[in-house]
């Protein structure tokens, strides 16, 4: 499947924001988010800026990086988009889909988990979790997060979304897209209203509508993508995002606001990319975030472990922490913001390098797996079935027998022929998938060119009128 640069860009912005959020949380403490439930004092209270001094303004602006937790919402929307994008125009077999998702997620996940547990044992002398928690962790379930890597809770959510995706496709085909979005919206709102924290953040129901909106965007990508551009649409999406944040600040409207700001921030960043991608000044930013998007999965896995240890070693040995995940606001008196940002930059560079290595390792695993799957999918023609009850030929039959110098092809049963034809059809569908996606991209480009030509013609007409 060809990569979509816009999707990689949005993923890159998302993972960068998540790393910045985790860094602030690990050193200066928890500001607040609603991933696992409604904030009792309101979502936005922790993000208010005190303008009484330059120091308080600097702290307030730095605290805004904790809004990076919303990168989780972006990943949920993009997960729905990518699953639908990979499955469009063809039927999926559930067991094949689950097997491919397993191979995509678990090998690199297991490698990172084993490495973190081993390093934790070497550095701290403890496993960092009970044997039961570690066993569940290998299946992909970390609850609301473990001390040595709290971000692993998201793995359980992604697995749930992938498990329900084939059934969501069936629901979509049976009730249509409007009914599909209405039903999943109701499920999400009811889940957010009724489920207690942290269950509301761990259960797939609270995230279902955002995932399904991503599916709908993929289903109409050639129509939606040209709409995600222009300063007017950027402003409207920003307004929708701020409206969602305001609604999330109150108990009664929180279940309505949380999905809204998650969807709006995803489309907002996507619109910025589409609007600015042709600008030369935007090119370095575009390339950086696309690269970050390509290494997003390993970076999500490894960005949090040993963050506090790194700051103790390279920033200040006097830092204090509330626990293994959350720092202490008193660290503002120990660690200046300038030094915090410098150490954060160094740490991020190391994490980027390690994530790139893990991405290459993951690609190598994917290539080996694909080669192994091709070997399994090679058509093995079984020998023709024998007929032990067949009578020996009579002399008359022998005289009428065809020329034995020409070997007749083996005969197969109707079931065997259907199986062979099905395999050949699957291969043709896989080969045509790239052609179909390329045609869709060309159609979108054609529409964009027509719009630009119309704008140029308007400019030429206006200049001619001015000249006359």
Explain this structure to me?
- It is built from 17 helices and no strands.
- It has two domains: about 5-375, no CATH class; about 425-468.
- It is mostly helical and about 475 residues long.
Write the layout of secondary structure elements.
Layout: H1 5-28, H2 54-63, H3 71-87, H4 94-124, H5 131-139, H6 153-194, H7 199-202, H8 208-219, H9 221-224, H10 231-247, H11 254-276, H12 283-294, H13 296-302, H14 307-314, H15 337-377, H16 395-399, H17 414-467
Helix pairs in contact: 1-3, 1-11, 1-12, 3-6, 3-8, 3-11, 4-15, 6-8, 6-11, 8-11, 10-11, 13-15, 14-15
* Rg of Cα set: 28 Å
Largest sheet: none
Runs in which pLDDT lies below 50 for 5 or more consecutive residues are 404-409
Task: Give the helix tally.
Answer: 17
Q: Total number of β-strand segments?
A: 0
Compressed to H and E, one letter per element, the order equals HHHHHHHHHHHHHHHHH
Residue-averaged pLDDT: 85
Overall geometry: globular
Structural class: mainly alpha
**Percent of residues in β-strands:** under 5%
Tell me the domain tally. 2
């Amino acid at each position: 499947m060809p990569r979509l640069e816009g999707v990689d860009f949005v993923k890159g912005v998302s993972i960068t924001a998540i790393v910045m959020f985790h860094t602030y949380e690990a050193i200066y403490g928890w500001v607040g988010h609603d991933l696992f439930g409604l904030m009792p004092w309101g979502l936005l209270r922790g993000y208010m800026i005190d303008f009484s001094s330059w120091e308080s303004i600097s702290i307030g602006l730095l605290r805004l990086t904790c809004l990076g937790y919303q990168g989780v919402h972006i990943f949920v929307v993009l997960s729905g988009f990518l699953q639908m994008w990979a499955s469009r125009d063809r039927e999926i077999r559930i067991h094949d889909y689950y097997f491919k998702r397993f191979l995509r997620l678990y090998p690199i996940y297991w490698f990172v988990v084993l490495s973190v547990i081993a390093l934790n044992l070497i550095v701290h002398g403890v496993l960092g979790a009970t044997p039961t928690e570690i066993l569940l962790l290998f299946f992909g379930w970390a609850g609301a997060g473990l001390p040595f890597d709290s971000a692993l809770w998201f793995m359980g959510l992604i697995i749930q979304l992938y498990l329900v995706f084939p059934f969501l496709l069936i629901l979509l085909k049976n009730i249509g897209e409007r009914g599909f979005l209405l039903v999943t919206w109701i499920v999400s709102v009811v889940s957010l209203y009724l489920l207690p924290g942290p269950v509301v953040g761990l259960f797939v129901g609270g995230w279902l509508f955002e995932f399904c909106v991503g599916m709908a965007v993929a289903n109409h990508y050639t129509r939606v993508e040209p709409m995600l551009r222009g300063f007017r649409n950027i402003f409207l999406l920003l307004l929708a995002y701020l409206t969602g944040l305001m609604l999330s600040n109150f108990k009664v409207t929180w279940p309505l606001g949380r999905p809204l700001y998650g969807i709006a921030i995803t489309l907002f960043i996507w619109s910025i990319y589409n609007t600015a991608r042709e600008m030369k000044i935007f090119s370095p930013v575009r390339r950086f975030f696309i690269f970050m998007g390509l290494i997003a999965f390993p970076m999500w896995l490894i960005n949090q472990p040993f963050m506090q240890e790194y700051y103790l070693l390279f920033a200040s040995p006097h830092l204090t922490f509330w626990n293994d995940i959350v720092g202490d606001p008193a660290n503002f008196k120990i660690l200046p913001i300038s030094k915090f940002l410098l150490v954060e930059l160094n740490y991020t560079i190391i994490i980027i390098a390690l994530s790139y290595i893990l991405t290459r390792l993951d690609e190598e695993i994917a290539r080996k797996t694909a080669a192994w799957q091709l070997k399994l999918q090679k058509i093995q023609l079984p020998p023709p079935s024998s007929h032990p009850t067949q009578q020996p030929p009579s002399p008359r039959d022998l005289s009428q027998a065809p020329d034995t110098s020409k070997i007749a092809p083996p005969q197969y049963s109707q079931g065997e022929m259907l199986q062979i034809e099905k395999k050949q059809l699957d291969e043709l569908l896989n080969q045509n998938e790239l052609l179909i996606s390329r045609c869709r991209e060309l159609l979108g480009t054609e529409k964009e060119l027509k719009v630009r030509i119309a704008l140029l013609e308007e400019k030429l007409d206006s200049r001619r009128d001015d000249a006359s």
